[in-house]
Amino acid sequence: MSVTAKVSDVIPAVKAGMYAARFDSIEERTNEQGKFWFWTFTLQVPEDKIGDPEQFTADADTGNALIPITATTSARITPRTKAAKWIEALRGKEVEVDEEIDFDDMLAATCYAIVEVADTNYSRIQSLMPAEQV
């Protein structure tokens, strides 16, 4: 029996830009390098910024599509780590040394996600900004 497959191009979910985002979840995962955090956000993406209109369609009333995007960070928080910067964007205040962070307190928090299209043609979160800064 012959097995065949068609090679397809990678189409980014969203084009590069800044999008309103909602924090949906975080999971602790492990790979060969240790623990890391797997973050999930939902982006509000205008119709003209949807990378693959066959996969995502905009709502007729708002003109936006709700598109999930995931990202990873180290499972370590110091004031300079990417995770700390993302927490600060979600809470609107800086993290402090020895502070206990409860991610459940940030669920459904909104911010802005700066999204870039990587060399591999995948959409990725470059950084987050607090919602009130835009």
Structure, described:
The structure is a single chain. This protein has 134 residues and is mainly beta. It has one domain (17-133). Helices cover 7% and strands 41% of the residues. The chain contains one helix and five strands; from the N terminus they run βββαββ. The chain has one helix spanning 82-91, and strands spanning 17-31, 34-46, 64-74, 110-117, 123-130. A five-stranded antiparallel β-sheet has the order 3-2-1-4-5. Strand 1 and strand 2 form a beta hairpin. It is globular.
Short description:
The chain has 134 residues and is mainly beta.
List the helices and strands and how they pair.
Elements: E1 17-31, E2 34-46, E3 64-74, H1 82-91, E4 110-117, E5 123-130
Antiparallel strand pairs: 1-2, 1-4, 2-3, 4-5
SSE ordering: EEEHEE
As laid out across the biggest beta sheet, the strand order is 3-2-1-4-5
Gyration radius (Cα, Å) is 17 Å
- The residue fraction in helices comes out at under 10%
Task: State the total count of DSSP E strands.
Answer: 5
The structural domain count equals 1
- Category from helices, strands and their pairing: mainly beta
